[in-house]
Amino acid sequence: MLGFQVTTLGQFIIERQSEIPGVKGEFSRLLRDIGIAAKIISREVNKAGLAEILGEAGMENVQGEDVKKLDVIANQLMIDCLSRGGECCAVASEEEEDIILISTPQANEAKYVVMMDPLDGSSNIDVNVSIGTIFSIFERVTPVGTPATKEDFMQAGNKCLASGYMIYGSSTMLVYTTGKGVNGFTLDPSIGEFCLSHPNIRIPKMGKIYSVNEGNKADFPEGLNTYIQWCQEIDKETNRPYSSRYIGSMVADLHRNLLKGGIFVYPQTTKKPDGKLRLLYECNPMAFIVEQAGGRATNGYGKRILDIEPTELHQRTPIIIGSEDMVKQLEQLM
Ligand code: P6P
To answer: What's the CA-to-centroid distance between 237 and ligand 1, angstroms?
Structure first.
């Protein structure tokens, strides 16, 4: 029987709109605009493998056009979709040095700003490893009707209204939270709809996966190396050590750990005293999601990621994120 039993992203957003205090259609439309961008980016990412036919980034393709890098394309697609929707007044992006004011006449009337990493892990594109888009939505703090300023983006993650990610992997998924739990949608290309596939995602309190770039271990804080050694000892319950899983794509590593349980660590090192990952558009959005799924995200020394008061758009922070009990264990050692 053909039947259509699934809930699409659009239906879900409208159904859940009443749950978010003070939020009306604009917020729902903003989420839908991001869903549209996700479908287009997914299409572009999934043909990246045809680069030799379509032309390598930075070169001319057969039509003599400049081939842009996928992260530049993803960045422009997100900005275009947010501009057309009219509900966002400005964007902070990993791809842009400064904030981008949406240039439509009504943009200054919009209530929301978006912080995003349009294509995180893009160095993995050429080797066909899953990559992702990370986004978060905040209410602006400057007066509606005026141009947004950097002040609208200097907000702690605990003020975030919604955050989510798209993962372009064996399938394209969109996972997001508005502070009422975490839900995952899988794109059905045959109908061009994101369909609810992972309702109310919860991260196990304990897991058996640790994700860290052990190539930097000579530079790690002592407590982290102690923890890694502990993970590599035989675990009494399973009679085997934990599994090390790290593919160098934050969205892919965190998505796996969110579903199966696990810990992801990008610590400070002597070379990177603030770690590598960015607070505004990588750590905060992922921390909001993981906390909403029952996990924990701190900077390694008890500071909750979502409580860090940002001072710069592209500032970095060390991060330990994942299953609550695993994060607490590592924090005790650090
Ligand atoms: P490293 C990708 O470049 C990224 O920003 C994250 O997606 C990923 O988790 C991290 O950097 C990988 O960094 O130093 O381990 O290669």
So the answer is: 32
Q: Give the Cα separation of 297 and 284 in Å (integer).
A: 9
- Res. 306: pLDDT tops 60: yes
Per-residue confidence (pLDDT) for residue 127, from 0 to 100: 84
Question: What pLDDT, on a 0 to 100 scale, did the predictor assign at position 23?
Answer: 72
- The yes/no answer on whether domain 9-198 falls in CATH 3.10.410.10 is no
Domain boundaries, the chain: 9-198, 209-333
Q: What are the tokens at 121?
A: 């892990």
For ligand 1, pick from 165, 265, 272, 277 the residue to mutate: most ligand atoms within 8 Å of CB.
277
Sheet harboring 172-177: ordered strands across? 100-101, 88-93, 112-120, 131-139, 162-168, 172-177, 182-188, 193-198
Residue closest by Cα to atom 2 of ligand 1 = 121
Alpha carbon nearest to ligand 1 atom 5, residue: 121
Residue 247 Cα, ligand 1 centroid: separation in angstroms? Answer: 9
69-73, 285-289, 299-303: which has the minimum mean pLDDT?
Answer: 69-73
The tens digit of pLDDT for each residue in 39-94 reads: 999 999 888 666 655 556 666 665 666 666 888 899 999 999 999 999 999 999 99
User: Looking at residue 325, what is its pLDDT?
Assistant: 97
CATH of 209-333, picked from 3.40.190.80, 3.30.505.10, 3.30.1490.100, 3.30.70.100, is 3.40.190.80
Give burial (CB, 10 Å; 0-12/13-18/19+) of 136.
buried
Q: Residue 197 is which amino acid?
A: S
Task: Report the percentage of the chain scoring pLDDT > 70.
Answer: 93
**CA–CA dist 197, 84 (Å, integer):** 28
Helical segments of the chain, H only: 9-17, 25-45, 51-54, 70-85, 222-231, 250-260, 284-292, 324-333
Report the DSSP beta bridge partners of residue 297: 321
